[in-house]
Structures are given as structure tokens and as C-alpha cells.
Design goal:
146 residues; alpha+beta; Aminopeptidase; five-stranded mixed beta sheet; 4 helices; 22% strand
């Protein structure tokens, strides 16, 4: 089992995993995200590959320089997405991907990391707390069509 940086070789696997996490997205949007990350100094991603070559998880990261809720520094490493396929959850893969993301952020001068999840996603909230994150705030977002 290994953790790999996003590359042109594994970009299709990354896109497929993104669609599992964000099923309302299209494959084209995921492929555009992969291309953007590959060409960005402000974004990064890692994939987890099993010994039989199957990609079963990913973490996508960014460096945020605008205000990030609950933080005091800049840039802040931000977990844009973290996903492990259901059959591999609770095996430590998410923690290993997060550790790779933490190192990526440290190498870019970050002293803090942040993330978010839906209020209804209790599994993700539990993961964040177990991984050492502390809750910064809870918000309800609104929209109004004009």
C-alpha cells in the first residue's frame, strides 16, 4: 500500500474517487479539477493505492490566504476533500492521507490546517475530532435568488 502525489498517471482514478465523494459533480468537472491541481502551486492532492493497484482514497488540499474560520495564521492548509471508499474506511487510510497532507502544508510554511464538513455528516465530524482538529464554529448558509 502506498500514498502517491496526484499525477497525470493517476488523475483518472482521482477523478473517479472525487465523483464518489461529490456525486452531484460531472466527470468533466472532476477532470478539470485534477488538471487545475496538477498545474497549481497552491493546491495538491494525494491518493492511496492498495498492493493490488486499486486506488481507494484521496485527499485534496489548498493553501488559503484569505481568512479561514478559527485560524490565526496565513497561509492555512485547507482540506478541500478527504475520501476513503466505504470498504476501506476505519482502517487508518484517512489518517495516513491526512498525515501526507499535513506534511505538504508544513513544507509550504503552514502552521495551521483547517477543514469543513456538513452539519449532518457525523462520521466526518468524528474523524476530524479523532485526527486532532477542534471545532471552530457552526454556521447555517442561506441563499436568495435574484
Amino acid at each position: 500500500m502506498s500514498i502517491e502525489s496526484l499525477s497525470e498517471t493517476n488523475a483518472r482514478a482521482f477523478t473517479s474517487l472525487c465523483l464518489e465523494l461529490w456525486p452531484d459533480s460531472t466527470y468533466e468537472e472532476g477532470a478539470e479539477d485534477a488538471t487545475r491541481i496538477l498545474n497549481s502551486a497552491q493546491e495538491g492532492a494525494f491518493l492511496y493505492q492498495t498492493n493490488d493497484g486499486e486506488y481507494v482514497g484521496f485527499i485534496a488540499l489548498s493553501l488559503r490566504t484569505d481568512y479561514v474560520e478559527g485560524t490565526d495564521s496565513s497561509p492555512v492548509g485547507y482540506v478541500e476533500g478527504l475520501y476513503v471508499t466505504e470498504s476501506y474506511q476505519r482502517t487508518g487510510i484517512g489518517q495516513r492521507l491526512l498525515a501526507a497532507g499535513e506534511e505538504w502544508c508544513r513544507q509550504r510554511g503552514c502552521i495551521e490546517m483547517a477543514s469543513d464538513t456538513e452539519l449532518s455528516n457525523r462520521q466526518s465530524q468524528a474523524f476530524h475530532l479523532k485526527a486532532g482538529f477542534t471545532e471552530a464554529n457552526r454556521i447555517v448558509c442561506y441563499r436568495k435568488a435574484l
